[in-house]
C-alpha cells in the first residue's frame, strides 16, 4: 500500500514527534514532505535517525511497501545500508515476502513502469508529440527553502523522454493567440485481430458552456495534517465553475476509485503535487457515483486532492462530446491488448484494488483555466487504463501560468501608465 496521509506515512517511529513542527513549518502533506533536502532537515533540527527514517519511508512509499516501514526504521540502518542486505536477511529479519523483496531492491522508479506515449488529435495539436521519460525544468528562484526543495524535487524526478524545456520551445504561442485547447488520447488499435473496431473519440475540446454549470458535490477537501478524513456533513450542491473561479484546476475524471489503473494514475499524478502547487494549480478528482466506503479507501491514501461527485456524469459526457464513452469488459478489456498492458503496468505498483462500482464509463482529464478562460486541454481514456501523460499536463499548466503572469504584467503596466 501507499498513503498520502501524513499520519500513516510517518507511522509510529521517530518522525511522529515531529508532526506538530512539520505542520507549523508548512510541510503539511506527503508529496511536499518528500521534497525535503538536508538543509530543510537541519532547519528543523532533525536528528540523523529522523533523516534516515524519512529517507526510508520516502523510498518505500514509491514502491508500496509501507507495511515494512516501522521494522526497517527500527533497525537503525539507512536506506543505502538496507539495500545492500541479502534476500535471506530481508526475509528473515524483516518478514518481507519474496515478491516484496524484489520490489524493494529494484531501484528504478515505480518498479520500472514507463508512462505511455499518446497521439494527439492532428486537428487541434499545435506542437509535435511529446514522449515521456525526462522532466528537468527549473523554475524561477525564490528565497523560500521550501520552494528550493520543490525545484530540487522536480529536477530529481524524471518522467519524460524529452525535457520539458525542449518541448516548450516546440509549443510556441504567438502574440494575441487565443488558447482554444488540445484534445489528446491514445492511438486507435484494432481488437481481436481487427474484428472489433476501437471506439472513436472526439476531435474537438469540450466547450466551456458544457461544464461551467454542472451541479457537483464536494465529498472530500484537499488533505492536510490532522484534518477529518471526509467532509463530516453532507456538502450542498454547487456550480462547478466555483471550483476554478479563482484558481486554475486539473480535473481527473476516473471510472472507479477502487480500480487499480485509476488508483495508480491518481497516485502518480498527486505525487507531483509540489510541481502543481508551484504552477498555481489545484488537483481535483471527479467521481460519477458515490460509494462511501470506496471514497474513504481512495482519499487520502491514493489521492490527497479535493474529491467531488458529478452525479449527472456531465464531465464524463463532455469528454465524449456530449455522450458517455463506454466499453464492455469483454471487448474493452479481454480483447484489447493495450488495456491488458495498462492493467499489468498499474498492478506492478503493488497497490491494492477491488471491483466495486461501475467500471465501464471511460474517464479522462481536463485542465481548466481560472475564471472563464476555458478548457485548455482534455485527455480521453480511449482504452481502459490510459493515463494522461505527465509531460503534456505539466507543460500545459506551465504555459497557462505564463499566460496569466504576462496578462497580469500587462494590466500592471497599463495601470502604471494611466497613473503617470
Automatic annotation (TrEMBL):
Keywords from UniProt, A to Z, are: Cytoplasm, Redox-active center
Keyword Cytoplasm assigned: yes
| SUPFAM superfamilies the UniProt entry points to | Thioredoxin-like
Q: Name one Pfam family in it.
A: AhpC-TSA_2
- Glycosyltransferase: present as a keyword of the record? no
**Cross-referenced InterPro entries:** PXL2A/B/C (IPR032801), Thioredoxin-like_sf (IPR036249)
Q: Where is this protein chiefly located? A: cytoplasm
Cellular location(s)? Cytoplasm
Q: Which domain of life is it from?
A: Eukaryota
What Gene Ontology cellular-component terms does the record carry?
cytoplasm
Family, according to the entry, reads as follows: Belongs to the peroxiredoxin-like PRXL2 family. PRXL2A subfamily.
The protein's name in its UniProt record: Peroxiredoxin-like 2A
State the species of origin. Aristolochia fimbriata
Amino acid at each position: 500500500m501507499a498513503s498520502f496521509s501524513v499520519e500513516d506515512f510517518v507511522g509510529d517511529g521517530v518522525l511522529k514527534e515531529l508532526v506538530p513542527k512539520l505542520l507549523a513549518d508548512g510541510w503539511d502533506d506527503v508529496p511536499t514532505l518528500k521534497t525535503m533536502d538536508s538543509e530543510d532537515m537541519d532547519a528543523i533540527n532533525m536528528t540523523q535517525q529522523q533523516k534516515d527514517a524519512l529517507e526510508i519511508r520516502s523510498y518505500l512509499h514509491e514502491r508500496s511497501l509501507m507495511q515494512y516501514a516501522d521494522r526497517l526504521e527500527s533497525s537503525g540502518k539507512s536506506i543505502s545500508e538496507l539495500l545492500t542486505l541479502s534476500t535471506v536477511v530481508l526475509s528473515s529479519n524483516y518478514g518481507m515476502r519474496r515478491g516484496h523483496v524484489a520490489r524493494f531492491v529494484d531501484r528504478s522508479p515505480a518498479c520500472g513502469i514507463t508512462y505511455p506515449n499518446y497521439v494527439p488529435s492532428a486537428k487541434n495539436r499545435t506542437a509535435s508529440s511529446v514522449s515521456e521519460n525526462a522532466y528537468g525544468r527549473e523554475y524561477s528562484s525564490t528565497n523560500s527553502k521550501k520552494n528550493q526543495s520543490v525545484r530540487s524535487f522536480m529536477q530529481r524526478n524524471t518522467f519524460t523522454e524529452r525535457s520539458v524545456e525542449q518541448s516548450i520551445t516546440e509549443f510556441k504561442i504567438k502574440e494575441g493567440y487565443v488558447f482554444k485547447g488540445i484534445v489528446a488520447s491514445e492511438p486507435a488499435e484494432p481488437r481481436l485481430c481487427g474484428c472489433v473496431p476501437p471506439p472513436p473519440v472526439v476531435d474537438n475540446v469540450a466547450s466551456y458552456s458544457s461544464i461551467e454549470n454542472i451541479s457537483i458535490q464536494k465529498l472530500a477537501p484537499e488533505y492536510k495534517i490532522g484534518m477529518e478524513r471526509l467532509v463530516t456533513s453532507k456538502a450542498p450542491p454547487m456550480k462547478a465553475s466555483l471550483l476554478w473561479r479563482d484558481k486554475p484546476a486539473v480535473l481527473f475524471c476516473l471510472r472507479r476509485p477502487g480500480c487499480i489503473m485509476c488508483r495508480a494514475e491518481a497516485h502518480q499524478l498527486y505525487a507531483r503535487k509540489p510541481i502543481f502547487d508551484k504552477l498555481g494549480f489545484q488537483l481535483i478528482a471527479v467521481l460519477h457515483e458515490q460509494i462511501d466506503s470506496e471514497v474513504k479507501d481512495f482519499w487520502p491514501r491514493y489521492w490527497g486532492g479535493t474529491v467531488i461527485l458529478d452525479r449527472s456524469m456531465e464531465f464524463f459526457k463532455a469528454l465524449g462530446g456530449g455522450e458517455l464513452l463506454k466499453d464492455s469488459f469483454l471487448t474493452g478489456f479481454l480483447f484489447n491488448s493495450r488495456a491488458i498492458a495498462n492493467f499489468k503496468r498499474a498492478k506492478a505498483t503493488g497497490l491494492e484494488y477491488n471491483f466495486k462500482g461501475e467500471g465501464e464509463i471511460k474517464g479522462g482529464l481536463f485542465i481548466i483555466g481560472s475564471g472563464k478562460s476555458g478548457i485548455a486541454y482534455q485527455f480521453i481514456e480511449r482504452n481502459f487504463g490510459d493515463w494522461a501523460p505527465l509531460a503534456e499536463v505539466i507543460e500545459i499548466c506551465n504555459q497557462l501560468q505564463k499566460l496569466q503572469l504576462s496578462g497580469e504584467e500587462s494590466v500592471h503596466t497599463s495601470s502604471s501608465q494611466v497613473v503617470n
